[in-house]
Design brief:
Number of helices: 1
Largest sheet: 6 strands, parallel
Strand content: 15-25%
Shape: elongated
Strand order of the largest sheet: 4-7-10-12-13-14
Pfam families: LD_SV2, Pentapeptide
InterPro entries: 5peptide_repeat, LD_SV2, Pentapeptide-BTB/POZ_domain
Domain SV2A/B/C luminal: 25-100
């Protein structure tokens, strides 16, 4: 499903087909930039900032980014294979038709992020704040979502088959509209899900 044009940031400059592979992007600041076909393979960053940018068909593969902000950005058709994000801020960003093979994220704030329909199979997300994120229809079979703050998140039609969800906030998860076969949960989550089904745990 294509992104509503009204949701796209109004960019002011553009960068096309740049080769930033292996570059250190630490400290760089980009605001309202349209990036198209940029190769960021194995690029690294600490404390970089991207605000209201649009990334189209960009490759972030095998990159490692720490405490980098990508706030209110839009990513369309981008590849995040083997990317590692640590304590990054992606508040309000939107991902459409992106790939996340062997993707890892630890810590950071992803509140209000849109990942509807994203393929997060085998991704590992640990300790990330994802409050009110849109994860509807997400494909997260075999994924690890550990101690993720999903308060207020939209989870309808999400597939968590054999996913490890221990420690995550599942207060908005409706077991009747999500797939949980074989998922690993902790005792507190089991009680929460039982309550959602109208069961009484004694």
């Amino acid at each position: 499903m294509a992104i509503d044009p009204s949701r796209l940031p109004r960019t002011e400059t553009a960068i096309h087909d740049a080769d930033w592979a292996l570059d250190d992007l630490s400290g760089r600041v980009h605001e309202r930039v349209a990036f198209t076909g940029v190769d960021l393979t194995e690029a690294t960053s600490t404390g970089a900032s991207f605000s209201e940018c649009v990334f189209t068909q960009c490759r972030f593969n095998a990159g490692v980014h720490t405490r980098t902000a990508m706030v209110n950005c839009v990513f369309v058709g981008c590849s995040f294979f083997e990317v590692g994000l640590e304590e990054c801020k992606l508040v309000g960003s939107v991902f459409e038709d992106c790939t996340f093979g062997l993707f890892t994220a630890t810590g950071g704030d992803w509140s209000f992020v849109t990942l509807a329909g994203a393929d997060l199979q085998k991704a590992t997300i640990t300790g990330v704040r994802m409050r009110e994120a849109d994860l509807s229809g997400v494909k997260a079979a075999h994924a690890k979502l550990l101690s993720v703050d999903l308060a207020g998140a939209t989870l309808r039609q999400a597939d968590f088959t054999k996913a490890d969800l221990r420690g995550s906030n599942l207060e908005t998860l409706d077991p009747l509209t999500t797939t949980l076969k074989g998922a690993v949960i902790d005792t507190a989550q089991a009680v929460q899900i039982a309550g959602a089904l109208g069961l009484s745990v004694r």
